[in-house]
Each structure stands twice: as structure tokens, then as C-alpha cells.
Write a structure and sequence with these properties.
Blueprint (H helix, E strand, L loop, with lengths): L1 H24 E9 L10 E4 L5 E3 L5 E7 L3 E5 L6 E4 L3 E5 L4 H5 L2 E3 L2 E3 L8 E4 L23 E5 L8 E5 L12 E4 L2 E2 L20 E7 L2 H4 L10 E6 L8 E12 L9 H10 L5 H7 L9 H5 L3 E14 L3 E13 L6 E11 L2 E2 L4 E16 L3 H8 L36 H6 L1 E19 L6 E20 L14 E26 L4 E25 L9 E28 L3 E12 L8 E12 L12 E15 L13 E3 L5 E5 L5 E5 L1 E3 L9 E14 L4 E13 L2 E6 L9 E5 L2 E17 L3 E18 L11 E5 L7 E5 L7 E4 L2 E3 L5 E6 L14 E3 L6 E11 L2 E11 L2 E4 H4 L5 H4 E2 L2 E2 L4 H6 L12 E3 L2 E13 L8 E15 L12 E2 L7 E10 L1
Parallel strand pairs: 1-7, 13-16, 49-55
Antiparallel strand pairs: 1-4, 2-3, 2-5, 5-6, 8-9, 10-15, 11-12, 13-14, 15-16, 17-18, 17-56, 18-19, 19-20, 20-22, 21-22, 22-23, 23-24, 24-25, 25-26, 26-27, 27-28, 28-29, 29-30, 30-35, 31-34, 32-33, 35-36, 36-39, 37-38, 39-40, 40-47, 41-42, 42-43, 43-46, 44-45, 47-48, 48-53, 49-52, 50-51, 53-54, ...
Length: 1005
């Protein structure tokens, strides 16, 4: 008994000792965090290393934290180096500026610049890993993020491209896409056939940052290519230290948001049978399949499941060889049946530093393999118009699909002008391509040992893409069925390759002259770029004979191949000068030559000048302690354009096959005929020269409260002259074509931009980040033809679609490019449009083409982007959205629908109509009525993401984040069509953008 009491006493004493020891080890840490100038750092993260126990500094930079003896306190804040210090009762922590971060925030052409020393309209963003939606291509990461940058996906097709515009377009016939530079390699903006999006060759998870050069003072260093702005993409690199591994993956489910409202089978039967204009033929066609009800849009659309997986590792070999390697796999299924996009990516980055950091090497290699299956988007238009009282299948000889025939029997002769079964357009066509791409560069930067202020940089890069494609149309497919068993269906085989090479060499001298409080940075270099494109294609008819079914039978389009190349050579230079770290000057000059122009027109000179004034460094603002940055910027510059759509040799005339497959009969002595292709000379203009754009920009950059509030304001005027216009009419007999590409025209852009990024709430548990940007842009043509006083209203273009399509748009002086050219609709007293009644605008008593007028245009006047992210302890919630105001669409689906007998019943076949046709009651199509030019302004929430962070997942040092995202959940618009976001404002056969739910995980080892 005594022994038991003695043991109990020993245990009690030991426990008390342990408690006293533990209590003695606990402490309350009182600390303050300041920057190098002694100013408090607000919102710095303070955490006990290896735990989730932490806090943030208050408005005085102070914090209080419970810790134990031996703990390490980790302090971090954006723009400063992380500090790790042993825990003590009182801590005074000075955060050192992270010069690497500060100096490389803004990547500009051929170098970098400190963010607060930038003099041009430059925006740098780093993708938010936690507030992002479905991102398959790099442009998806820019949507709504940068003021004045419009990113609109062309369709909802997997792997589809996007239209990217920086401050609107500056060209008419030339391309309006910005120049894209990836790790120093200038990309080719055009995609080869079989690859819908050239940027899809880059995996978004490999991207570290974007820099957008918006004005000419920033972009003129790229001279010949920069009239539409520049986007510089920097990919992730390795870091010193032990290897780190990251896995990210997700699975998504996509489905249609809405459908075009058409008459159902019952509504259609009722409408036809009760129509006063119904004919016996219509009733016969209507009653072929009593009781059948088919929703054709449901038949061609589906719920699609997609996946995305990425694995990366980074670290360094013995501190001198940082590396990063990554692999990715994307399998994206479209909601239009049969459409699919698969991508395999791999990247390697090596950034060794040699000779005591005097030689820095940057080696990048990115490879991709893409498999596409394209679905015929025409099936969407066919689904809207096809008779809902007919079945999908009826055991016909046309692959079993219901097909309109002359005698309405399954094996009758196909009615060639009737609508085609939309499901057959998908299931009887196999349209596939495979693309292989490689983007790589080797960059060497040497800082001279005897003169460290002088460095030389050499960059060699390649962008190579090859595509192989085959499109097989079944011999029995209704859309191409021919009675000849050896000339039906088709197989189109094509190959394309783009081989782009670049060589850059420049020297740079950078030095501080303290005696005159100045800093000089001078750079000069040479660039060579070559772009070679090779194509070949051939099309065969197929056999329908049982023994050779589906095999090539006869040639439909003979084998053709092309091999073209153009070259750019450039000399360039830049000087940056800073006086007293307050007054900034940047001057650039680039002299470019393009082989697309004749020798006497080949060279173009592109200068720029920018001034900056750091107002916050002035003595009269030194007392404003909350002011981090206030900088005034003034910029002027000239940029060029040679990226035209008229081939690589527009100044030369050469022979080509005649248009429309024209052929000429040649008879031999026996009277036998041989048909040969007609060849004709092409139009040429040896006087064609650079299109040049001059930009004037004034801007202010601001930042307050340790960057808790930051942003910029910009205003600009952009004038383009010598506008390359492919639609210039020339006098008869002066050239081989009616229209020749020429430098005839000019246009002007004016705009204002504003952006703000804030952290309204900074706390221990709860934080809130908020961003907003808005841009206004107005574009008008100021000169277009040889004579501005010409009676011609301008060149009309862009078909309304449907049989006998009409030209809907026009380029005219004094108006926005591509304005709609339409009749002014007359309405009755109840506000309903009167069929065929238009305003006689010129008052001559006759309504004809002279009464057409320019009404609205597809480009938005105002664009906004907004994003927000909330975080509470381990949870985070974020969303991204956009607003577009003043953009108009031509609703082609509604405009091509009418209810007359000839519209409903043609070639012994019935067709369905949208319910919008019932609202107007039009018996014939009124495609040039301004009634169909509809306001397509919208508000879109692009994505909403909810995430949960696990600091210790599976093992120590491993963390994870689980998240769920809804893509495209909210669209608010008055537009009557399927989706208000339409490229070029022509809403016809648009692949619908789906609503997508995504579940994902990100794990760091």
C-alpha cells in the first residue's frame, strides 16, 4: 500500500515539473514589422513556421502572437523578402525589399524594368491560382483582368481560339491580333488548318506572368509588329533549394445553358394545319410520321465530361542549376456531339548561373501533342430549322437517317435543296487532326568581368507546328450523297506546318552616376525572324460499292502544295534615363524590314518617347506617409503593321488556278476533250508599304497604404495612316483584279482606361481582395478611298447568311469600321414592325439601296472587368466577371426565319422556325432591317470558385487545396439570341458556350 502511494506521489511531482517546464516555455510575442524606411508594414503575414498558428500586422505594423521557446517566426509580405527569426518576447522586424521581385515585376521588350520606373502604359499580372475558372488556353487567364484588353472566346468548341483586342483594332484588312511573345519567342498569330487556336500549344499552368504593352511608347521596341499591342508571357522557372512537386487536377461537367426557342412538334403541327395558306403538299409532308416529336437541339447537344491533370517538379542541382519540369494532359469534350480536344504537354526549364553569376543561361523547351475531333457547327443551324415531326432514323439508304426525298420514301432520290438531318452531319462525318508543336529558346546573358555594367544578350528561338488532318464523309451521308457509286462522300487529306525562327542579339550598358544623381540604361541590338509555311492537300470521292466501300475512288480536288516564307530584319535601340529617381525618360528606335514589301518600300522606322515624373518623391508630397506611388506618364510613339491577309508576296503578280474551279476544254485531233485548269495572274501592288500607327498617351499610376490600394488611369489617341485596305477598287485595265490591296485609308481610336486593385479588409482570419477596371474606346475611319468625296458609300461585306445572302456591313469614312448598313424599320402604332416598310431617308419617294444607313457596330463602347476574393481561415471564395456595353449583334437566326409558304415548304420539304418569327409574322425574310440589329450588351460572371486549404495533407510538408468552380453561371442581357458574346457581331451557327461545374485539387509536396 505504501509502495502504491509513493509511486503516485512520484507521478504527481513529475507531472508538476513537466507542467512548470511547458509553462516556462510558453511566451507572448509582441512585435512590429517595418520596411527599410521605418514605415509600418500593414497586413504582413506572421506565422509560426511549420504550423497554422499565425496573425497579420495591424495599421501600425504591430502583432501579438503566442509562441513557445525554440519556435521560428516567419514574416512575409508582397514585395519583400521573407524573414525567419527565433521567437522572442519583443521583436522589431525590418523587411528587406525583394529586389528580384521588384525589378522583374514588369517584363518589357528585350529586358526588364522596375515597376515604378516604367514610363509606358504597361500592365503586369500574375495569374491567381485560387480565383480561376476553366482555363484551357493562355488567353482564358486574361479575361476581364486588364483595362482596355478584350478577350472573347470565338465559340464554346473545345480548344477554340479567342479574339484578343488591345484598345480596339487599328486595321481593316490586316490583322488586329496583338503580338504574343513567349519566353522571348515571337509567336505566329495564324494557326495552320486543323489547329483552331495557336495559343493552345501552351499549357496555362506553366505560365508565371503576363505583361501587356498597350501604348506605342512601350510597344515600339517591337516596331513592325506592335500596332495592336504586345502580350509578353513568361513561364515558370526553377528555384534554388530541394525539389518541390506539385500536382493539380480537375474533372468538369458541361451542359448547355439554353437553347434557341423553336416550335415544338405539337406547336408546329398546329401552326401548319391551321395556316390559311396551307397546301396539300404541306399536309402530306407533315403527316409522314404521325406522333413523332423530335427536339433536334437536344439530339445534337450533350452533357460532356472533361478532365485535366498536371504534374510539375522544380528545384536546383547544387545551387547553380535551377530546373523545372512539367507534364500535362487535357481531355476536353464539347457539348456538341463528337467534338473533342486532347492535349499532352511537356516543358523543361533550365536556368544555370555560371562564372560567379556573370553568365546566366535560360533554356526553355515546350512540347505539345494535340488531337482534335471537330464537329460540324452547321448541325446547330440545321437543328433549329429541321422539321420536329420527323424522326432521327427511318432505315433509309442514307445511313439509316431520315432524309427528305422526292417521293418521301426512305430509299427515294434525295431532295438536294432540303435541310440535312443534323444528327447525320455529326455521326457520318469524322473530322480529325493531330498537331505537334515545339517552342524552345536558348538565351545567354553575359555580364563582362572587367566591366560589369556592360552585358550582352543572345537569344535563339524556334516555334514549330505541324498538323496532319483527315476529314471523312461517309459515302451514304445525306449531305453529300451522289448517285454515282464511285463519286460520293469524300476524304480530305491535308498537312500544314509553320516553322518560325528567331535570333536576337543586343548589348546593354547600365550604370548609376551618383555625382549627377542619374542612372543610364542604354541598349542596342539586331533581330532576325523567318516565318515559313508549307501546306498540301487533296480530296477524293469515295466508293459505295460493297467490295471497296469507303475507299478512295476518284480525285475530287487535285493535290496542291504551297511553300511560302517571309523574313523580318531589325535594328533597335532603347535608352532609359533617370534623374534623382524622380524624372524618367525612355527613348526607343526600331528600323524594320519586311520581305512582304518591294525593296524600295521594305524598311520602316518606328520611334517612341516617354516621360515619367515620380510625384511621390517630391518634397511637397513627402509628408503623405500613406502614399506609396504617384507617377505621371506621357508617351508618344509609332508602331507598324505588316501582318496582312494577302499572302507573303502582295507586291508580286503570279499565276494561280482560276476562281471557282474554272476549267477549259482542250481537244485533240480525234475530238477527245481534256479539261485543264484555267490559270490567271494575281493582282499586285509594288507600292504597298508599312501601315503605321501613332499613339499619344497620358497616364497616372498610383498606390496607397502599402499597396493596399493601387491602380492606373490612362487616356490615349491612336491614329493609323497608310491603312492597308484589301478592298480598293482600281480603274479597269490597270491591274489583273477589280480590287487590289493598297495603302488607302486611315482611322482613329480614342479612349480612357481606369483600373483599381484593393485589399479592403486585412485581418488575422478574414481577408478581402477586390479588383475593377473599365475602358472606353471609340473608333472611326477618317479616310478610305482615293477620293473622300466619292459618291460610293464604301465597300459592303459580310453575308447575312441563308440562301441569297446580302452584304450587311460597310467600311465608311466618319463611321466605325464594320458598321451595319441596313434599312430603318417602320413600326405600327403598337410598336410592331411592318413587313417590308422602311423609312425613305433621302426623301425621293422610292425606298431602295440609297436609303440604307449606317446603324451601330459590333464593338463595345465600354468594357469592364471585376474580380473579388474572400478568405476566412482555410476557406476562400472568389469570382470573376465582365461587362460589355454598346455592342450590337445581327441576329441571323431570327432574320433568316419567315413564315411564308415558300419559306416553310421548299423542294417538298418542311422546315421549322424560331418563335421570334411568330412574333413578327413576316412572310418573307427582311434581312436588311435594323430590327435584327440588336443590343447585345451583357454582364457575365465568368466563374465562381470555392476552395478549402489543408495545411498538413497526408504528411508533414505536404499541403493541399480542394475547390469547386462554376463556369459561365450568370449571363444578364436583353439580347434575343443564344449568347450575346459573338465575334464580329454576326450571330449564326454559333457553338454555344456551356455552363460547367468543375471539381479540382492542388497538392504541393
Amino acid at each position: 500500500m505504501k509502495r502504491l502511494r509513493f509511486k503516485a506521489l512520484l507521478i504527481l511531482i513529475a507531472g508538476l515539473c513537466m507542467s512548470i517546464s511547458v509553462f516556462a516555455q510558453q511566451m507572448t510575442v509582441n512585435g512590429v514589422v517595418k520596411d527599410p524606411t521605418g514605415e509600418p508594414v500593414i497586413g504582413a503575414n506572421v506565422i509560426i513556421k511549420g504550423t497554422t498558428n499565425g496573425t497579420v500586422t495591424d495599421v501600425d505594423g504591430q502583432f501579438v502572437l503566442s509562441a513557445s521557446k525554440g519556435d521560428v517566426i516567419s514574416v512575409s509580405f508582397i514585395g519583400y523578402k521573407m524573414q525567419e527569426l527565433p521567437a522572442t518576447a519583443n521583436m522589431n522586424i525590418i523587411l528587406a525589399e525583394d529586389s528580384q521581385m521588384l525589378e522583374n515585376v514588369v517584363v518589357i521588350g528585350y529586358g526588364t524594368v522596375k515597376k515604378n520606373d516604367a514610363t509606358g502604359a504597361v500592365t503586369a499580372i500574375k495569374p491567381d491560382e485560387k480565383n480561376r475558372g476553366v482555363q484551357v488556353s493562355p488567353q482564358d487567364m486574361l479575361m476581364g483582368k486588364v483595362a482596355g484588353v478584350s478577350v472573347a472566346s470565338s465559340t464554346g468548341q473545345p480548344g477554340s481560339s479567342s479574339s484578343i483586342r488591345i484598345r480596339g483594332g487599328s486595321s481593316l484588312s490586316a490583322k488586329n491580333d496583338p503580338l504574343v511573345v513567349i519566353d522571348g519567342v515571337i509567336m505566329n498569330n495564324s494557326a495552320p488548318d486543323g489547329l483552331s487556336n495557336p495559343l493552345s500549344t501552351v499549357n496555362p499552368v506553366d505560365i508565371e506572368s503576363f505583361t501587356v504593352l498597350k501604348d506605342a511608347s512601350a510597344a515600339a521596341i517591337y516596331g513592325s509588329r506592335a500596332s495592336n499591342g504586345v502580350i509578353i508571357i513568361t513561364t515558370k522557372k526553377g528555384k534554388s533549394g530541394s525539389v518541390k512537386i506539385n500536382y493539380s487536377g480537375n474533372v468538369s461537367i458541361s451542359t448547355k445553358r439554353n437553347k434557341i426557342e423553336v416550335m415544338s412538334a405539337d406547336e408546329y403541327r398546329d401552326y401548319i394545319t391551321t395556316s390559311p395558306n396551307v397546301t396539300e403538299g404541306m399536309l402530306t409532308a407533315l403527316n409522314l410520321h404521325p406522333g413523332v416529336s423530335t427536339d433536334w437541339q437536344d439530339e445534337v447537344l450533350r452533357t460532356a465530361v472533361s478532365t485535366d491533370h498536371n504534374l510539375s517538379a522544380y528545384g536546383s542541382v547544387k545551387e547553380f542549376m535551377p530546373y523545372r519540369v512539367s507534364f500535362g494532359y487535357t481531355d476536353q469534350n464539347g457539348i456538341l456531339k463528337t467534338s473533342n480536344f486532347q492535349r499532352y504537354t511537356g516543358s523543361l526549364s533550365l536556368t544555370p548561373s555560371l562564372f560567379n553569376d556573370h553568365l546566366n543561361v535560360n533554356l526553355n523547351a515546350k512540347g505539345v501533342y494535340i488531337k482534335n475531333r471537330f464537329a460540324d457547327t452547321g448541325a446547330l443551324g440545321s437543328a433549329v430549322a429541321f422539321d420536329p415531326t420527323k424522326p432521327v432514323y427511318n432505315n433509309s439508304k442514307y445511313g439509316g437517317f431520315f432524309t427528305w426525298t422526292g417521293d418521301y420514301t426512305p430509299d427515294g432520290t434525295r431532295s438536294t435543296s432540303a435541310g440535312v438531318n443534323p444528327v447525320s452531319m455529326l455521326e457520318m462525318v469524322d473530322d480529325r487532326s493531330t498537331a505537334k508543336s515545339f517552342i524552345g529558346n536558348a538565351q545567354f546573358d553575359y555580364k563582362f568581368h572587367f566591366l560589369p555594367e556592360l552585358r550582352i544578350n543572345m537569344n535563339m528561338g524556334i516555334d514549330y507546328t505541324s498538323v496532319e488532318g483527315k476529314k471523312y464523309v461517309d459515302p451514304n451521308a445525306p449531305g453529300s450523297y451522289q448517285p454515282d457509286n464511285d463519286a460520293t462522300g469524300s476524304r480530305n487529306i491535308y498537312n500544314n506546318s509553320h516553322n518560325n525562327k528567331i535570333f536576337d542579339l543586343y548589348g546593354q550598358y547600365s550604370k548609376d552616376f551618383e555625382s549627377i544623381s542619374s542612372h543610364f540604361d542604354v541598349m542596342a541590338g539586331y533581330s532576325y525572324q523567318s516565318y515559313r509555311t508549307k501546306t498540301d492537300k487533296v480530296t477524293y470521292y469515295l466508293s459505295r460499292r460493297p467490295e471497296t466501300f469507303g475507299q478512295n475512288a476518284t480525285v475530287s480536288n487535285e493535290f496542291k502544295e504551297t511553300d511560302t516564307k517571309y523574313v523580318l530584319a531589325s535594328f533597335y535601340g532603347r535608352m532609359n534615363y533617370s534623374l534623382m529617381n524622380k524624372y524618367l525618360l525612355t527613348f526607343t528606335l526600331r528600323d524594320d524590314a519586311s520581305s512582304r514589301f518591294a525593296k524600295n518600300r521594305r524598311w520602316g522606322l518606328f520611334p517612341s518617347l516617354a516621360l515619367g515624373w515620380k510625384l511621390n518623391e517630391e518634397s511637397f508630397l513627402k509628408d503623405f506617409n500613406s502614399l506609396d506611388e504617384l507617377k505621371l506618364r506621357l508617351g508618344w510613339g509609332v508602331t507598324g503593321q505588316q501582318d496582312i491577309n494577302q499572302g507573303d508576296y502582295p507586291y508580286l503578280s503570279f499565276y494561280r488556278d482560276g476562281k471557282g474551279g474554272a476549267m477549259y476544254p482542250v481537244y485533240d485531233a480525234a475530238g477527245n476533250v481534256t479539261w485543264v485548269n484555267v490559270i490567271a495572274p494575281t493582282a499586285a501592288n509594288p507600292n504597298l508599304k508599312w501601315e503605321t500607327t501613332t499613339t499619344y498617351n497620358v497616364g497616372v499610376d498610383y498606390s496607397f497604404l502599402n499597396n493596399r490600394i493601387s491602380g492606373s488611369v490612362d487616356g490615349y489617341i491612336r491614329k493609323t495612316k497608310d491603312l492597308i485596305n484589301a478592298e480598293v477598287n482600281v480603274p479597269a485595265g490597270t491591274d489583273f483584279a477589280e480590287y487590289v490591296v493598297s495603302n488607302i485609308g486611315s482611322l482613329e481610336n480614342k479612349g480612357v482606361e481606369f483600373s483599381i486593385n484593393t485589399r479592403p479588409v486585412v485581418g488575422k482570419d478574414f481577408n478581402w481582395d477586390l479588383g475593377f477596371n473599365i475602358a472606353y474606346n471609340k473608333t472611326k475611319i477618317t479616310e478610305l478611298t482615293y477620293n473622300d468625296n466619292s459618291d460610293s458609300p464604301g465597300k459592303r461585306f459580310e453575308s447575312t447568311g441563308g440562301d441569297g445572302g446580302l452584304r450587311l456591313k460597310i467600311h465608311s469614312v466618319g463611321y466605325a469600321p464594320g458598321s451595319f448598313y441596313v434599312f430603318q424599320q417602320v413600326y405600327d402604332k403598337d410598336g410592331n414592325p411592318i413587313e417590308g416598310e422602311y423609312v425613305d431617308r433621302n426623301g425621293d419617294g422610292v425606298v431602295n439601296d440609297n436609303d440604307l444607313y449606317r446603324y451601330k457596330n459590333p464593338v463595345a463602347d465600354v468594357m469592364m472587368g471585376f474580380n473579388s476574393k474572400f478568405s476566412y481561415k482555410n476557406w476562400d471564395l472568389g469570382f470573376n466577371g465582365r461587362i460589355s456595353l454598346g455592342n450590337y449583334n445581327f441576329n441571323a437566326t431570327a432574320a433568316n426565319a419567315a413564315l411564308g409558304v415558300n419559306e416553310l415548304f421548299g423542294n417538298n420539304a418542311l422546315s421549322n422556325k424560331p418563335v421570334s418569327a411568330l412574333e413578327t409574322g413576316f412572310q418573307t425574310r427582311q434581312r436588311l432591317s435594323d430590327y435584327y440589329i440588336q443590343n447585345a450588351s451583357y454582364l457575365k460572371i465568368d466563374n465562381i470558385t470555392l476552395g478549402y486549404n489543408v495545411s498538413k495533407f497526408l504528411a508533414t510538408g505536404c499541403n493541399a487545396r480542394f475547390y469547386a468552380t462554376v463556369q459561365n453561371p450568370i449571363v444578364i442581357t436583353k439580347y434575343d439570341g443564344l449568347d450575346p458574346e459573338v465575334n464580329d457581331g454576326m450571330d449564326n451557327n454559333v457553338y454555344p458556350r456551356p455552363i460547367t461545374v468543375l471539381f479540382g485539387v492542388n497538392i504541393n509536396f
